[in-house]
Write a structure and sequence with these properties.
single chain; 141 residues; alpha+beta; Aldehyde Oxidoreductase, domain 3; four-stranded antiparallel β-sheet; three-stranded antiparallel β-sheet; 3 helices; 27% strand
Length: 141
């Protein structure tokens, strides 16, 4: 499970934003395949937990084995909190539970190199099924 070594603040604000405005925003950095030959690109906005990133990485590395290389281009640095079950409203904010990464449409999250195109396509599409937002497989142009 990925998490930062040290954080300045244990709890962050929720960053509530209008859903219509959020749907229009797109990523401006990390939008092209930079390291490998194939990549997994986000199509919708969402927050990916560290568990989702790890599950996708395991699937890709199982397909790629020793011949290829995998790059993970997202890191969960945003803490999220949760109150215990069956607790009444109020009494402050919940305890930090884990870390998430905020992903906007267009962000390349994973990259693969050193494998055949059909193997890379299978690996990245299976990894996309582990992530809670819509994705597509892209290749270097």
């Amino acid at each position: 499970m990925l998490f930062p070594k040290k954080v300045k603040f244990r709890k962050w604000h929720t960053k509530r934003i209008n859903a219509k405005k959020q749907a229009k925003t797109v990523e401006t950095r990390g939008i092209s395949v930079a390291f490998g030959s194939f990549g997994l690109k986000a199509i919708t906005y969402g927050r990916i937990t560290s568990n989702e990133i790890e599950a996708a990485r395991k699937v890709i590395s199982r397909y790629v084995s020793k011949t290829g290389k995998v790059w993970v281009r997202v890191f969960p640095d945003r803490p999220f909190t949760q109150k215990p079950a069956e607790v009444k409203m109020g009494k402050g904010k919940g305890d930090p539970v884990g870390f998430v990464c905020e992903v906007k449409p267009g962000k390349v999250m994973f990259e693969v190199d050193g494998v055949e195109p059909d193997v890379a396509n299978d690996a990245l599409s299976k990894a996309g099924a582990k992530i809670s937002l819509r994705t597509k497989v892209v290749s270097r142009v």
